[in-house]
Amino acid sequence: MTELGPVAWPPAPIRTERLVLRESEAQDRAAFIELFASPKVRTYLGGPRPRDELEREVPELPGRRPGLFVIDLDGAMIGAITLDRRDAERPGHIRPDAGEAELGYMFLPGAWGCGYAAEACAAALGWFAGAFPGEPVVLCTQTANDRSTHLAAKLGFTEVERFEEWGAEQWFGVWSPVASSGLREIRPDQYGHPAPPVRPHVRPGSPARKPKRLGSLSNASIG
Ligand SMILES: CC(C)(COP(=O)(O)OP(=O)(O)OC[C@H]1O[C@@H](n2cnc3c(N)ncnc32)[C@H](O)[C@@H]1OP(=O)(O)O)[C@@H](O)C(=O)NCCC(=O)NCCS
């Protein structure tokens, strides 16, 4: 995982109708541990991590790095969203030089089914469109992860390809600010730069990919 790149970070907290996207704080530590220890959250992300291990390893101030937004509902963390650069050695690219911005998301199960993930991700994409005008964002999630593929489609991601990784079929999609005019927060007239053409890129002679135990977003450092 590579960090997002030159951008003023953190941005001022982003307020949506019900949520705040903000930098992490020490009070979020328990929620970070819960996210990574939850079998439900981690079903498609390589499985839960042992809680005692997390208690030992998660720093006092977890998740404080460019590209990681804590999602706050009424003062409490309910999830996290990441925007990172996609590793070149992983499958799934739309640029010859790789390093695409990639969206990841994890929400506590108690916050599922309320539209919070869609609301927060739309705001994060809106922020990204302002910070990196015209740049597309990619997303990779297991095909079996129905909630996630549904959310991806709702946000305006469209399928580029599918491939096997970590022993499961992955759905790889792309979002561009121009194409996603359906989102309230992101208007093409607001970010009037044409998005670069999007097409899957297969690099000839790519080295064999290292299998990784953990899935999307789980690669993101929480330290
Ligand atoms: C993927 C994940 C974020 C999806 O969360 P979610 O709560 O299902 O997603 P949404 O925010 O889209 O909300 C879903 C439903 O809330 C309902 N809802 C209830 N009240 C609502 C409101 N006020 N506004 C909007 N939707 C509302 C809607 O019915 C919506 O479903 P719909 O799109 O069919 O209308 C969540 O399942 C998760 O954290 N999974 C574990 C981590 C993971 O697998 N991440 C993927 C790797 S990137």
Automatic annotation (TrEMBL):
InterPro entries noted in UniProt: Acyl_CoA_acyltransferase, GNAT_dom, N-acetyltransferase
Pfam families for the chain: Acetyltransf_3
Ranges in coiled-coil conformation: none
Keyword Transferase: yes
Alphabetical UniProt keywords: Transferase
UniProt domain N-acetyltransferase: residue ranges: 19-190
GO molecular function list: acyltransferase activity, transferring groups other than amino-acyl groups
Keyword Transferase among UniProt keywords: yes
Positions of the UniProt region annotated as Disordered: 186-223
Top-level taxon in the UniProt lineage: Bacteria
Cross-referenced PANTHER family: GNAT FAMILY, PUTATIVE (AFU_ORTHOLOGUE AFUA_3G00765)-RELATED-RELATED (PTHR43792), N-ACETYLTRANSFERASE DOMAIN-CONTAINING PROTEIN (PTHR43792:SF1)
UniProt-recorded name of the protein: GNAT family N-acetyltransferase
Organism expressing this protein natively: Streptomyces marianii
Lineage: Bacteria, Bacillati, Actinomycetota, Actinomycetes, Kitasatosporales
